[in-house]
């Protein structure tokens, strides 16, 4: 396999190592998701593979070991995005967890579900209007806030 700045070139070899041709895959056709090129580690017939997701389909490239497949995955990502791919050697669990969290958060926002912490924060930020205990002047603020009366300078906890 050869990686250029514009293409991924697969050189096909025969059973005895002789060249049987080549196939060119333009890098611009590789899908990008959340800033990462979709050249991901996988398995094909129990062996390490590199699954490359193109706009018009998927190609699977077999490798003798996971280390080599990881190397190609990182290099393809670096060429396409221009940035090192630090998280490509992980199983992808972090990305899946992040996507699930985003989905759950969107669901909660849509249907108005709130966590206990969000409810407590909302209750703590309740606006309160009252009268000063010393001079009777109107005072306002947020529940639990310590203020000073603007007329007589008496400290007040709302």
Radius of gyration: 30 Å
The average pLDDT value, as a whole number, equals: 81
Strand content: 35-45%
The number of strands is 12
Q: What does the largest sheet look like? A: 3 strands, antiparallel
Strand order of the largest sheet: 1-2-3
Structural class, please?
alpha+beta
How do the SSEs run, as a string of H and E?
Answer: EEEEEEEEHHHEEEE
Uncertain ranges: none
Shape: rod-shaped
Q: Considering DSSP H and I runs of 4 or more, what fraction of the residues is helical?
A: 25-40%
Distance between the termini: 71 Å
So how many helices?
Answer: 3
Can you put this structure into words, describing what you see?
The strands form 5 sheets. The chain has a 3-stranded antiparallel sheet with strand order 1-2-3, with no helix packed on it. Strand 1 and strand 2 (7-13) form a beta hairpin. The longest helix has 19 residues, at 93-111. It has helices at 66-81, 93-111, 116-124, and strands spanning 2-3, 7-13, 19-26, 32-33, 36-37, 39-44, 47-54, 57-62, 127-131, 138-142, 146-148, 155-157. The mean pLDDT is 81. The protein has 158 residues and is an alpha+beta fold.
Features:
3-stranded antiparallel sheet, 36% strand, 12 strands, 3 helices, 158 residues, 28% helix, alpha+beta, single chain
What's the quick description here?
By secondary structure, the protein is an alpha+beta fold. The chain has three helices and twelve strands; from the N terminus they run E-E-E-E-E-E-E-E-H-H-H-E-E-E-E.
């Amino acid at each position: 396999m050869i990686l250029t700045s514009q293409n991924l070139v697969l050189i096909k070899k025969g059973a005895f190592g002789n060249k049987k041709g080549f196939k060119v895959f333009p890098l611009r056709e590789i899908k990008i998701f959340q800033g990462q090129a979709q050249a991901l580690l996988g398995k094909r017939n129990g062996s390490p593979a590199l699954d490359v997701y193109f706009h018009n389909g998927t190609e699977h490239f077999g490798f003798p070991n996971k280390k080599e497949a990881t190397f190609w995955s990182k290099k393809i990502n670096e060429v396409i995005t221009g940035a090192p791919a630090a998280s490509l050697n992980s199983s992808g669990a972090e990305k899946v967890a992040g996507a699930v969290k985003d989905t759950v958060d969107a669901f909660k926002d849509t249907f108005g579900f709130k966590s206990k912490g969000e409810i407590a924060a909302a209750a703590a930020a309740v606006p309160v209007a009252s009268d000063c205990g010393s001079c009777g002047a109107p005072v306002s603020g947020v529940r639990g806030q310590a203020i000073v009366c603007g007329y007589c300078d008496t400290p007040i906890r709302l």
